[in-house]
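QUALITY CONTROL LOG
STEP: pairwise intake check
CHECKER ROLE: data steward
CRITERIA: each record must contain a sequence immediately followed by its structure tokens, with no blank fields

ENTRY 1 OF 2
RESULT FIELD BELOW
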Amino acid sequence: MKWRTSLILAIVALALPALAATELDQRVAASRQVIKAFAGNLKEHLIAGIKEGGPLNAIGMCQIVAPDIAASQSLASGWRVGRTSLKTRNPANAPDEWERMVLEDFESRKAAGEAAKTLDYAAFELLDGQRVFRYMKAIPTAEVCLNCHGRSLAAPVAARLDELYPHDTARGFSTGDIRGAFTIVQPLE
């Protein structure tokens, strides 16, 4: 009887990494879908805003619409969905320690030749004493982003950003740079 128990425990132990890998894959896939919806919705609003009122109008899209989209995605998924960056515009989006480490890893990976659009990271972590799944996906700087995040901004855009974000560090980017990352925290039961 003892050998059966040992055999069953050995089989279960061997299966655990596969179960964890399957759960990880499922959570990553679900996170990617939420981020795809977030990014698509935000891009749609930005392009419409620029068409309607130029780059100055796009500032309002990121200031007001992006947090609304994140809140909507958070409500729909039951997760915490947001954006962060090493160079923030809004201090409320500053990375926590884990996010900072991931963003720094993204920068190292990009410097080693990986494309920003392919960079993501997932892990099971403890956050405030609770076990969670965390996922981050790099946001590559697109051409449209340079209107407000580039090296050379139009004077009215720079003035409006200075007014709204006196501590803004989210400038000086080039196409393909890592602008920041989408970030997801899924509570585990």
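ENTRY 2 OF 2
RESULT FIELD BELOW
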Amino acid sequence: MSNLCIGLDINQEAIEFIQKKLRYKNVYYCDILTDEVSLVIKDNKFDHLVIVEVIEHLDNPTMFLKILRLKLHGRVERFILTCPTAWFYKNFIYALKNKECINTDHRYWFTPYTVCKIIKSAGLDIEEFYFVLSSGPRYNIF
């Protein structure tokens, strides 16, 4: 396997920003649910597919992961998935005040059970599971 890292997204404007302003070359448009797998992916094998803060935005995260599993079978060794936790301490504070504070693009909050259920229902195995209940330093790239 080579030292290749690529990015895929469905936001063409963001891809152009990353390519032009940040000068990353290996970023491509791809709707993994409907598009054919890119030649860049077909011609390579990858150790990891990193899916960062995506599934909470999808109407059907199980179907998304299942399609990834089927389209990338034999091309990706492991999936690394991150998603927001319903157990974030501020959610409890808001709940005590009868409030909900949520990104309006999100469809779900996940508990350990619900995210594991989605992953297993998609036909994937879980090797490790971690919680990160607080964020570290934030960096502004803009």
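INTAKE CHECK: passed for both entries
DESCRIPTIVE NOTE, ENTRY 2: The helical segments are 12-20, 39-42, 61-71, 89-96, 112-121.
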